[in-house]
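Message: Study each token:
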Amino acid sequence: MSNNHRTEKDSMGARQIPANVYYGIQTLRATENFPISGIKPLATYVDACVLIKKATAIANGELNCINQDISQAIVQAADEILAGQLRDQFVVDVYQAGAGTSHHMNVNEVLANRALEILGDEKGNYQRVSPNDHINYGQSTNDVIPTAIRVGSLLALDRTLYPALSKAIAAMAQKATEFQDIVKSGRTHMQDAVPVRLGEGFRAWEIILREHHQRITTAAADLHNLGLGGSATGTGLNTHPQYRHRVAELLGEFIQQPLQPAPHLMAAMQSMSPFVNVSGSLRNLAQDLVKISHDLRLMDSGPQTGFKEIQLPAVQPGSSIMPGKYNPVMAEMTSMVCFQVMGYDTAIAFAAQAGQLELNVMMPLIAYDLIHSIEILGNTINSLSQRCLAGISARRDRCLAYAESSLALVTALNPHIGYLKAADVAKKSLETGQSIRAIVLEAGLMSEEQLTTVLDLEKMSQIPK
């Protein structure tokens, strides 16, 4: 070993490794093999992998499968990484070897080399602490990576998406109350429809988001069953009989989730259906968020030639050439992120069906796309709530003017004069510019008192309780 490099060996031979890095020879080979995107593993995914290694080190130490001093050193190394240290040592591209072996060994090597330092030894002395024989005791990429996807997804949901959804739901509820007495024209097929309350539109969005929160929570329950302990093919080869129960218990304590060993380890390792299920619930949320973001943009369109029923907060100048222009950028960004989530969902579906026999080798793609989907959706909803929803104001007079001028008001006349006569009234109003009220009175179809009652916008726009 020189001052600048150390020599490491694997089954393919020896390589020189920079002395200051904590990853080892297999990680080095992976960086050479996969210079694909420049995208490194998500921090949440690293957390998940390191939490698994911490749990396995404790369990294997308790079960006398590895020495106590090594177990404790691994746990200390894991805690340091979870606290933010050595994050630059996880360097394998997200597009890599099938099943995630390259990233898995990156984690094993970093933990082994830091554990060696904690024990007073030098990096690379794998006779004392081995990435394979100690960090990875009783484990395989094939059971660690699907478990890491589960743990990482649960962490991302708790850290980003759930809090963001709760914030958006609260913002929608607040605006629903604030705008409850504002009557506006409804629109169907992008044409005039009967009046609605602006507040009820926001209430509808609140309920839609609540229901998505519940759907995602229900789907995420599939992530609680772990295949960890199945080792290479689901048979539990080289594991202690109590190991899988103990690691599930420890991981559950670490992330405050009701984790448990899967009823059938092989099934949990082979099938990607829990990830497809969660991804599908994210896609479902995304498509409704696209609709909401488009509605916000339409209602804010203008300021002179659009609807301009609401005013979205101006957060930045909107044009490099048109002075004074402000665009609905938070809503626009929301749509873009949702399109990306939908794309990730398609990729996950393709990857999930591409396994063969005892293993799905496409797990690295699923890991990145699923956890990234959760995080960018959460970050998007959080930003939309803070910088858009919370600051929306209503153009009360504009809303009322559209409601009063809508030809769809004739719908309320149907029970009194019939559909065909009401259609004639609408046609004449459109052709002549006369008001519906004036035409009906002129034709003697209803009395003024009757019209006042029937064309009461407040009553017409009320939601039945």
Observations:
- The chain has three domains: 5-137, 143-228+269-396, 406-460.
- The radius of gyration is 30 Å.
